[in-house]
Write a structure and sequence with these properties.
By secondary structure, the chain is α+β, with helices and mostly antiparallel strands. The chain has three domains: about 140 residues, SCP2 sterol-binding domain (Nonspecific Lipid-transfer Protein, Chain A, 2-Layer Sandwich), CATH 3.30.1050; about 260 residues, Metallo-beta-lactamase, Chain A (4-Layer Sandwich); about 80 residues, Serine Threonine Protein Phosphatase 5, Tetratricopeptide repeat (Alpha Horseshoe), CATH 1.25.40. It is about 35% helix and about 15% strand. The strands form four sheets. A seven-stranded mixed beta sheet has the order 3-4-5-6-7-8-9, with helices on one face. α6 packs across α16 and α12 packs across α13. The longest helix has 27 residues. It is globular and about 65 Å long. The structure holds zinc ion. Zinc ion binds next to α4. The site of zinc ion (ZN) has 7 residues, from α4.
């Protein structure tokens, strides 16, 4: 049964939350009480930080403020801001931080607001699905008698449930690098749109499913407050902009913050269409807001200032898109476009468009790949010499690996990006100097970098070059109720994507998953691929029968399949050996 456990796993070790929300204790599959342990940070490197990057950190200094009477803002308690509106009939909570741990840090402030207003949270609004906006939600209900309504755009819940998806192992690693989660305080400066991300390999998540869903636009009274909830696709497709009609306050969510927009994120996401983002800002401009409070960075005051900044923001987005398209049509490759694209001075100099988070050249590359895919148009890239072969040829050209290493070392100060490229070739040849050279080059690049996403990625990669290993993700003290709300299909689908294809190139067989509380599914293996089918296939060689909660618990390594088998909680149609053999066809995701 070991393969079942690891095959399904999303790389995790733990179990049911002990005693509800609060604290970091949970029970492992072996029944042992687990405690959150200190995370292991990378070794400090004494890398320097640009003065402008240091100054930018001030925006996220931890604080709470009443932006306007009855509109409360908490900054710096997690990556994103939290806003509480003291509405006539209750408190409206807008966004909820990235983890149970982050939310617990802000709970005293929420408690204070409940006391001072004599009201409970009657409504929660999620501006979009990103972790830093949704995963602390359940924590804020502690001590409440009211069950709040939860508002979100129609796409939000499905996107949150993609926390169980086949790409989770790689996006976790890339996100941990981009957000510098494992960098020591000495090396970490900021996250461009916020301070440290309070979500690591041990944190738990507490999303609350939406009770009220907005498709496009909803003009509604919530807790006696007149609101417009406007679908505004931009940084994500499920964005909601919120307008407080009587207060003339706009909450633009993540479609505006005090930095160049992250039109591409290096942690890796689907294409963010700049045209949709610009169009959404145009809709927000029609509100004529007098105060704007983004979910990252700081409020903006004054109708004219808001209009100017929103207009510049959308113009910068359109400028990058349009100019990239022109250059694409002129036959330029992504590298050439990235080297040439530049905002015009009036936008490049705007303090709210500095490249502290997103970068213009990354945005241009994203437009290229989002519209034309990976091929640059240069035939030299259709069948390039790569990997060890290229490294070997480059070393030969340089006069041997030692000469290549010397060239990399010589370039460290003058052209660290070139030094990194050469050192990366040496790494492929297993030359011992390669990794120390890579680490040095990466830190040189980091020291010169404005964008947190690149700086943190460089610095974490430098630590990895020196032997630091990123931990595997887990679900920490995530409550079962959240895990069990995720469609069972998401969990089973991960199996199909992790087939050990080379072992079954000549085989065709199917196996059933007969859930006691959900429609059954079949996985069919057909010569190197696995398909997910509805129902139990008639030609199945067997089936396992269990509850979806058990299956989910096994998948996240919260429940021990061997114990469930012994307890009769998993039964099998056909022999247990058949079940084991079938499940052994799938490899654990990294
Ligand atoms: Zn955010």
């Amino acid at each position: 049964m070991k393969s079942f456990l690891t095959g399904l796993g999303v790389g995790i070790v733990f179990a049911a939350l002990l005693g509800g929300v609060g604290g970091y204790l949970w029970v492992s599959a072996e029944g042992e009480i687990q405690e959150r342990t200190e995370i292991t940070y990378a070794t400090a490197s004494a890398v320097t930080t640009r003065p402008d990057v240091k100054t930018h950190s001030e925006i996220f200094r931890r604080r709470t403020e009443e932006v306007s009477p009855g509109v409360h803002l908490a900054v710096g308690y997690g990556l994103a801001n939290v806003i509480v509106i003291d509405a006539p009939e209750g408190l409206i909570l807008v966004d909820t931080l990235e983890s149970i741990r982050a939310a617990e840090g802000l709970l005293p402030w929420i408690d204070g607001l409940r006391k001072s207003t004599g009201k409970e949270i009657t409504d929660i609004i999620f501006t979009h699905n990103h972790a830093d906006h949704v995963f602390g939600a359940g924590v804020f209900l502690e001590g409440q008698t009211t069950t709040p309504r939860v508002w979100a755009q129609a796409g939000t819940q499905g996107r949150v449930h993609e926390i169980i998806n086949a790409l989770a192992p790689v996006t976790f690693r890339r996100a941990m690098r981009m957000f510098g989660v494992y960098l020591p305080d000495e090396d970490f400066e900021n996250n461009g749109i916020g301070p440290r991300l309070l979500s690591d390999d041990q944190d738990g998540f507490f999303f609350l499913p939406p009770s009220d869903v907005v498709e496009n636009r909803l003009e509604v009274k919530i807790a006696g407050e007149s609101l417009i909830l406007q679908h505004a696709p931009g940084e994500t497709d499920d964005h909601l902009a919120i307008f407080l009609v009587d207060r003339k306050i706009l909450l633009p969510a993540d479609n505006y913050y005090h930095a160049f927009p992250n039109l591409y994120t290096v942690r890796g996401t689907p294409y963010r269409d700049p045209r949709k983002w610009a169009a959404s800002i145009d809709v927000m401009r029609t509100f004529g807001a007098e105060i704007m409070i983004p979910q990252h960075s700081q409020p903006v005051f004054g109708k004219d200032r808001i209009e100017n900044q929103l207009r510049d923001y959308r113009d910068a987005i359109q400028f990058v898109y349009d100019q990239t398209i022109q250059m694409i049509n002129a036959g330029l490759t992504p590298d050439e476009i990235a080297a040439q694209i530049k905002l015009p001075p009036h936008l490049a100099n705007a303090p709210y468009l500095q490249e502290f988070y997103g970068k213009v050249e990354y945005a241009a590359r994203a437009v290229f790949s989002g519209t034309l895919g990976w091929f640059s148009g240069d035939p030299a890239e259709l069948d390039p010499v790569t990997g060890i072969r290229r490294a070997t040829l480059m070393a030969e050209l340089a006069g041997g690996p030692e000469a290549l290493a010397k060239a990399a070392g010589d370039a460290l100060d003058t052209e660290p990006a070139w030094a990194l490229m050469l050192a990366t070739e040496l790494m492929r040849l297993d030359v011992p100097e390669a990794q120390p050279l890579r680490a040095k080059a990466l830190r040189k690049l980091a020291a010169a970098e404005t964008a947190s996403s690149a700086r943190n990625y460089y610095l974490t990669a430098a630590a990895e070059a020196e032997g630091f290993t990123l931990p595997k993700p887990s679900f920490g003290p995530t409550p079962d109720e959240m895990i069990n709300a995720i469609p069972i299909r998401n969990f089973v689908e991960i199996l199909t994507l992790n087939l050990k294809a080379d072992r079954v190139l000549d085989r065709e067989l199917s196996y059933g998953f007969d859930f006691t509380d959900a429609p059954p599914l079949t996985i069919r293996i057909r010569r190197g691929i696995a398909l997910l089918e509805d129902g139990l296939a008639r030609d199945r060689i067997g089936a396992l029968r269990t509850s979806t909660a058990n299956f989910r618990g096994i998948a996240i390594k919260r429940l021990d399949p061997a114990k469930l088998l012994l307890a009769g909680e998993i039964t099998s149609e056909g022999s247990i050996l058949t079940m084991q053999e079938f499940l052994a066809h799938f490899r654990p995701p990294v």
